[in-house]
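User: Structure tokens for both sequences below?

Assistant:
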Amino acid sequence: MNKMLLLARWFLRSWPVLIPIFFVVLHCTALSYCPTSLEQINKAFAFGLQLAGGLLILYSIDSNIGIIHNSNIINVIKKWLADIPLFKKASTQTITLGGVSSKETFGNLRIYNTPKTTEEKISHLQTQIDWVKKDLEKQNMSLQQSVSKLQKASFKEINRIKSQLSSLEGAFKEMSVGSIKTQIMGVLFVVHGSISSYIA
């Protein structure tokens, strides 16, 4: 039973061919049993199938435009009409010159009394060493924080790019697999309609 269901699903995947075959059978049935004249039947099928095929192909093209450019045929036509030179207003550009400012940051300023005795000089030297250590520790902490922020920002950017690539991959798969079936069915409709029109 499961194999039969799988076989049925596999068979239904060929719907771009099955549906046109159904219309061929319907056309032949109408020619055999419909009391209307053969010419009118052929003309009706020719018109309907060519129209349906053209609309299907147009729909497929519109879907591809939406996937690639995030737009549709109507917007493309509107943009094309808006770019007509006769109706397009000339644009003016304004150049603004802005001032450039600079800012300098100096190190930590500390106020101290000038040592006089040897003990005071030694003590002051030790104090300066402590100051240097503190400054280095602050700079090290600031550098670590900057590196951590850059890492977080880079991870976010990498994840965003991965998400976009995954979305694009899915969109191109849909465009290459999904739209081709619609185009095949549209082409078969147009061929069927053209043959019917020629016979009529």
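Moving on to the next sequence.
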Amino acid sequence: MVATTIHLFMALALFLIQNWIGSKSYSRGYVKFSLLDDKDEALSFNFVIKVFGPIVYLIIMVAILQYFHCNQFLFNIINVVYYYILIRIITIFLYERSSIVNWWRIIFYYSSILTISSIICSKFINSVDNLLPDFSEIKNEIWLLIIIFLYQVGNRTEEILPKEPYETSRAYLPELKQRKKRYILKKYSHYKKEYWNIIDKISNQNIQINTTIIAILIFENFNRPPIIRFVERCLIKITKKEMTLGIMQVSSNRAISDTQSVVIGTENLCSKFRKNQKESETARFRLMIKHHCPDRKYIRQVLFITKCIIDNLDNRYDYSDLYSEIEHEFELYETI
């Protein structure tokens, strides 16, 4: 039982480490899960991170356990990999992303992890008493480090993003995968039925504002699914500290429902939009989104979701102002 608990904690640590590595490696072509389908992918780099990352972690953990003579935890150490994959799959369903992930790629990655880790355990880990390197014969390790270094340098593919909110830059209009299109339209239909009338009253029946806010809800729910929002509501009852809550992720120092967050968020954004009407004629909707979250990638994600929605509406000509902003935003990017 103790060994199982240790293995579970090791798997959770691996999960967090892999996520951290992924976030730090995004500019090098690492595929970070998003509703935008970036084409700047380095497939070999992704394979190394996602497949060999857990295996390297497993070897390091075995070496540490051997060093501290905790051999009782080495039995069935491969369970760490099994638990890690299980955590990954559970997370996909908790975040409601089962319909939009690339299951073929996931199966390929996880099958590779299981196959290679099984071979490593049976042929290497289980037959070696001490995995720590022998520094008296370090030349092979040095050459290995050189190869890894050259690989990293050769595989570096940075994405160039503008520093300013609307600075012209070389990038692209991302591709929209069918599975993600279905996800966006399904969520749009659901949130329109649930929140449209609430938003419509506050926006004075401005369908362009309504659709933009629905797009924000889709993206916020994508990153903060119901289970996470439930945890946040429980947490604020304990901490009493201000945090972002609800499906629209608005700041509050008390627990609020998803509907309350939509009301608060819509009131704030509509107020900002009316102010923007006097200040800007070309970026009112983008400035409204920026008021909710100033991150450039966030603005692009919301506009991209909005474009997907409008492109599939029969009355898309009623969205001329919003669509012109979307076109202006993505015209700054070179389509590949």
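User: Anything stand out in the second?

Assistant: Residues 26-32, 156-172, 332-336 have pLDDT under 50 and may be disordered.
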